[in-house]
Amino acid sequence: MASPAGQREADAVGTRLAIRGVSARALSVGLGIAALHNFWSLHSLYIIRGSWLNRTHFPMGVFVPFLILVLATPVLRRFAPRLAMSGPELLVALCAGLAGGMVPTFGLSTTWIGMLAIPHYLATPENQWGEYLLPHVPGWMVPSNAQGAMRWLFEGLPPGDGIPWGEWAVPLFWWTALLGGMALVSFCSVALLHRQWSGHERLAYPIPSVAADMAEGAAGRGEWAGLLRNRLFIAGLSVALAIKVWNLVPAFVHGFPMIRLFHQQLWVYFTQYSMVHVSLNFYTIGFAYMTGLDLLLSIWLFHLFYIMEIAAFARIGLGVAGFSGGDVSWQGGGAMMCYVGLALWTARGHLRRVVRRALGRTDGAEDAGELMRYRWAVWGLVLGVAFVICWLRMAGMGLLLATALTVLLFVSYLGLARIVAQTGLLYVNLPQSAQGLILGTAGAASIPAQGLTAMAFTNVFANDHMGLFMPAFAQIAKLAERVERHRKRLGWVVLLGLLTSIATSVALTLYWGYSGGAYNFGSIALFRRTVPSVNGYVSHMRSPDPVHAASFILFAAGAAGMALLAFLRYRFNWWPVHPAGLAVGYTGMTRHAAFSIFAAWVCKFVVIKTGGMLLYRRTVPFFIGTIVGYALAVPLGYVLDVIFFPGQGHGVHAY
Predict the structure, then answer these.
(1) How far apart are CA 110 and CA 119, in angstroms?
(2) Each residue's pLDDT tens digit, 475-522
(3) b/e for 320-338, b at 16 or more Cβ within 10 A?
(4) Total Cβ atoms within 10 A of residue 439
(5) Strand 274-277 to strand 267-271: parallel, antiparallel, or no bridges (unpaired)?
(6) How distant is the alpha carbon of residue 372 from its chain centre?
(7) Residues 6 or more apart from 85 whose CB is under 8 A from it?
(8) CA-to-CA distance for 617 and 598, rounded, in angstroms?
(9) pLDDT tens, residue by residue, 166-213
(10) Alpha carbon distance 538, 453 (integer Å)
(11) Close Cβ partners of 218 (under 8 Å, ≥ 6 residues apart)
């Protein structure tokens, strides 16, 4: 038995480790996660052509390294306690990884590099890019095609030539500055609203809550300290891992039966005019199980509502007039704008106190425990917005267009960040882009060619309408609540994590492109979002589409529906449907996740109705286990693809 003095010393060491937060090793590990996530995501897309690892608001390329740390921590605590990371340190490392979670592949870098290189490379007399687009592109905004620099990116460098880094230096500097301004605005917005969302409105934040519980449990603290020994956790892990491994076997054994319900490409016709994605995803179900029943039911009901609405309009022949499946996004767009307006109205008291604090008034909101002082957050927000507007003006937009686009972008990002914080949905994106809202209301004919050209290049940060940085920053703000020491240093962790991600993604894309030719990445890589975007804007310049009344009608209907649902929600306690479903019930990514959300609702509804909240708490480890089992199958599938199927990988993880 240890002596009393030795025991006191061990207890003191354990206490110091338990409260350690923003430490040098936590930052180093976090930057390693950020770099690994970007490498793994790009390698899987470009070289292996396998899983898409950052298609969610908790990217698999971040979650898997974090999970490995969580699983390793109890072992280190027992055999090498000084090497074990504390719960707050694990969360700091996770914050660094999440900061750049949206950077690789279609989140940012793939579209970014493709958008800067493709206009020069693919311009032909047939597509008329050289006639309509290139004359309006400022020289500082895209790399020069001198000596075939863009050609060699797609076709590979001639023997003996070096990568033309100099051609990329100026454009990458200015674009990085723009992205930095957008990240600053996003971070400051989250810092200003976090106390309102987390403290006053008590949004659930399911994604960071699960991650924080896992980290504290691994460090021997909190409710889930013994999670790894929990039988339900092991059962959930075993079920998910076994099914995913079973579905890997057909890659090796021709004709081996696949459990298709757990394969992402299973669609069935719901009506004559629409289909439902009926596949189940353990990653989606596991996190959705932590979400409120009303939110889960809302997503599923409004998903069905949109499907039936599309079918009804198509049946009576209104699809051609603007009521097709794609155009119901206007209804979701109106609901989203109203959703953000209502959220800001609800927060008006908090925002008034924030402004008073920023002006130095003693009766302002308290900001001692936030990520940054409100004064700096307000100034950062103002200066960041001004910089983004000025950048867009230099790119060719008029002041009104630049201002409108900037405001709509950040309002949209704010709405999606709040929905992710409220619902914990992994697969959810915006129903309508800011660029689409402007083109559909003002019309392309009212925008000069320079403005349309600049708007085409803003597709760089469209990132599949996933809100760019703001949803991740909202989750980081929630994780920061569990980091007691040096919380304000997390801003630097976020900055370094973001810069590490951008540098890694850009360097790898250019290196692999010039080394082996970006054409070998496959047609879906640098071309997926870029070529359709450029073609679309050139088409707008040649023959602008008219503004359709249907867009305004659907937008107004969505806004009115959101206002009515919000009134019913706050007026009647028994109202079972949450308004958020109207905004995101039929977005591109929700269509893939809706059936899994419905499955999570059924499971949770049955559990609560039969055993109440006590039984629900007891079953949570099973669903955390399904998340972990699913996540462990993803690197297994990647390794098998690297060994046996390079260039012909399998989508173990997508939707």
Answers:
(1) 15
(2) 999 999 988 777 778 999 999 999 999 999 999 999 999 998 888 888
(3) eebbbbebbbbbbbbbbbb
(4) 22
(5) antiparallel
(6) 23
(7) 25, 26, 29, 69, 73, 76, 93, 219
(8) 20
(9) 999 999 999 999 999 999 999 999 999 999 999 899 999 999 999 998
(10) 8
(11) 69, 70, 71, 73, 74, 87, 90, 228
